[in-house]
Amino acid sequence: MKGCVKSMYKVAVLGDRDSVLGFKALGLDVFFAEQKEQAAEQIHTLARKKYAVIYITETLAALIPQDIAQYKDEALPAIILIPGKKGSLGISMKNLKLSVERAVGVDIFND
Amino acid sequence: MATSSTTNMTRMELTRLKHRLKTARRGHKLLKDKRDELMKQFLTIVRLNKELRINVEEALMKAHASFTVASALMSPNMLEQALLYPKQSVSLNVQYQNIMSVNVPVFEFKTRSEDPGEIFPYGFAMTSGELDTAVDALSRVFQDMLKLAEVEKTTQLLAEEIEKTRRRVSALEYVMIPNMMEKIRYISMKLEENERGNITRLMKVKDMILKEAHGYQD
Q1: Checking DSSP bridges between strand A29-32 and strand A78-82, what pairing results, if any?
Q2: Does B184 touch chain A (CB under 8 A)?
Q3: Residue A59 and residue B106: Cα distance in Å, rounded?
Q4: What's the pLDDT band for A3 if we cut at 50, 70, 90?
Q5: I need a labelling partner for B85 at 20 to 30 A (CA). Which of A11, B91, B98, B143 fits?
Q6: Span A19-37, average pLDDT
Q7: Min Cα separation A25/chain B (Å)
Q8: Which residues in A lie closer than 8 A to residue B136 (C-beta atoms)?
Q9: Which residues of chain A does B148 touch, with a Cβ-Cβ cutoff of 8 Å?
């Protein structure tokens, strides 16, 4: 654990070209990946570097669930799913529900 | 843990067990309190998470829509050229906040320039207006996206900690404490039994001595 040490981290966006290109204008580091192996490799490389937040499209995240789950219980990096250009797949909502179930034991948001 | 058959039937063991039981009970109470407080925090944060997620997804979809239009209007080369060299850059300051001994990250982001107009890294002459809309929408949703990252990570970490704490609470409540109580009962009964056996023996011996000395009979 890094404690309260202040250090500079970066933000990465990973996904297919059309979905993430726009983030480049914001000054985020954009990485392209479309295949499973490519995505898994990218995720691990990015996690080792100084990226605190990695946004990944749901389409891509759906291909590499284990690789993402690996970082779930660590403080950094935060791997956050965002909808790609095809729209939300509802994966992150499902993950949220799983988290709730994990903690509470039952799903209290069944609406 | 030693089973009752291998437990030492001594007073020392009994005292030790009683101490352990007291500690376990206190630990159980503390962990239960921790779990309740974590749960309280978790529920607030989960609601926030859900809200943010819905907002972000909605806003991102809008941005994607504009972006799709822009990429249809412009050639892929032009589009890439326009976005290739961002003027803006973002770096994050990560600090940790302690929620009931769970370290959760707090992100504070710094952009290189404060000017909101700086997000457009291209000249307006060669690009479609839809691209401006898309980039603008993205820059606006980015604040929420960062907040979402923070909140979602917190949710995950808290969920893990709650699960752990809950397991510990149940282990203490349903295994450790009943086990120890059982053992304490067993030892104290055994000790009482020994005591009774001893008294009977003493009475018997006394009788025998009296008989021997005085030919006393009752």
Answers
A1: unpaired
A2: no
A3: 27
A4: very low
A5: B143
A6: 85
A7: 5
A8: none
A9: 80
Interface predicted TM-score of the whole assembly (ipTM), two decimals: 0.84
Helix (H) or strand (E) holding A52: strand A51-57
Q: Is the pLDDT of residue A16 over 70?
A: yes
Please give the Cα distance from B206 to B27 (Å, whole number).
Answer: 50
Inspect the interface and report whether the beta carbons of B86 and A8 lie closer than 8 Å: no
State whether B135 and A22 contact (CB < 8 Å).
yes
The SS3 of residue B9 is coil
Nearest CA-CA partner of B64 in A58, A52, A37, A78: A58
Contact of A11 with A32, CB cutoff 8 Å: no
pLDDT of residue B138: 83
Residue range A10-86 in CATH 3.30.110.70: no
Query: Is there a contact between B83 and A80 if contact means CB atoms under 8 Å apart?
Result: no
Positions in chain B short of pLDDT 70: 1-6, 112-121, 123-126, 216-218
Tell me which chain A residues have a C-beta less than 8 angstroms from the C-beta of B72: none
Stated pTM of the model: 0.81
For residue B111, the chain A residues in CB contact (below 8 A) are 27
Strands A8-15 and B90-99: antiparallel
Q: Spell out the domains of chain B, with CATH numbers in brackets.
A: 11-212 (1.10.287.3240)
Nearest-by-Cβ selection for A25 from B50, B61, B138: B138
Q: Give the per-residue pLDDT at A1.
A: 42
A18, B71 contact by CB (below 8 A):
yes
| Closest residue in chain B to residue A92, using alpha carbons only | B53
Residue spans of the domains in chain A: they are 10-86
- H or E segment and range at residue B203: helix B177-214
